[in-house]
Amino acid sequence: MRCFILLLLTLFAVSVRAQTSSDQIYKLDKTSIQAVVDEIGDTEIIYFLPKDTAKHTALRISRKLVWKIVYETGETELINAPTPATAATAKEPTETKESAVKPDRIFLANKTMITGKITKVTKDKIEYTRQESGPSYEVARKNLTRIEYGNGQVEDFASVKPGALAKLSVTAGVDGNYLLGSKIWTDKEEGAGLMTWLGGSVRGNYQLGKSIAVFLALGYSQASVQKNYLAGEELLYKQEMTLAGPNAGIGIKYFFKESLYVVAQGKGNFLKAKTLIFEDGEETKDQLSAACPSFGIGLGFTKKISRVVVEGELHYQLMQSTFESVTDPFHMVGARVGIGMAGFGKK
């Protein structure tokens, strides 16, 4: 029984020593760090704190700042020989002391930590150096969870959710199109003679991420033409034709650069075709209605200045006629220019 108890005590002591044993990193500034050294690279040393037994947070220190490492086995590895002035006064510290000026600590979403000096902060990224005179590095703000500055200030990014970049904007614009294709719509002699298709629309844009946005659109558009029929120089009769109505659609934008995108849109156009004939002081009216679907693709740009949004597009549209008497499609090329406000769905 006594032997069994002694065995348990021995195993317990060995276990405690295994859990608390650590390496010692001695720095050139006479401070030391208790650590579990994981990797010694050409420019930096990666280590974990002894209490981080699961190795969740990897810490880094520049190789240039380290004098030597004393491993838990007692083995010593010299990293940088101290200068004569340092060697004359250097004493191995018995406990860890904080440097007079603490470095900034940058915590990333992948559970790693970077130690250095932050030199610049923008809305998209931060820039830092790992040594006072070393090269400059940068990291995107979206990859950060927290920054602990050397002066004690803490900036927490953990509350920023993955979808926080999404935002809402509303624009109002004018749309101008030139009709191509079927003679029954565009020919002045044998067809209706419609040449231009003008209108306006309001869009609600929702940014899903850096590259994708969707939008809903409500608008109104029309095309009109007037013809005078003569016999010599005498007016026989006058004809006016108007094709007009509201429309509603949905679209998607893909941003291949920060402000440039390709767009695809589908719409329902609720049109009325009115024809008026004026002859001998009398007016004759004819009217037809139809719901005509259309599809368009285009190239556009958008620019945000403070909360003001400006956008412009060049596009092609195909609209299928569903009038009983004419089923030939419309082909249109044109442009849209819009202006509006952003920030309604601000993070």
How would you describe this protein?
- The protein has 347 residues and is mainly beta.
- The protein folds into two domains: 23-91 and 100-156, no CATH class; 168-342, Beta Barrel (Porin).
- It has helices at 2-20, 84-89, 183-186, and strands spanning 23-27, 32-40, 44-48, 59-62, 66-70, 76-78, 104-108, 113-121, 125-129, 136-140, 144-148, 154-156, 168-181, 196-207, 212-231, 234-255, 260-279, 282-305, 308-319, 330-342.
- An eight-stranded antiparallel β-barrel has the order 13-14-15-16-17-18-19-20. A six-stranded antiparallel β-sheet has the order 4-3-2-1-5-6, with no helix packed on it.
- The longest helix is centred in the N-terminal third of the chain and has 19 residues, at 2-20.
- The radius of gyration is 37 Å and the shape is rod-shaped.
Supply database-style keywords.
Porin; mainly beta; single chain; 3 helices; six-stranded antiparallel beta sheet; 347 residues; 2 domains; eight-stranded antiparallel β-barrel; rod-shaped
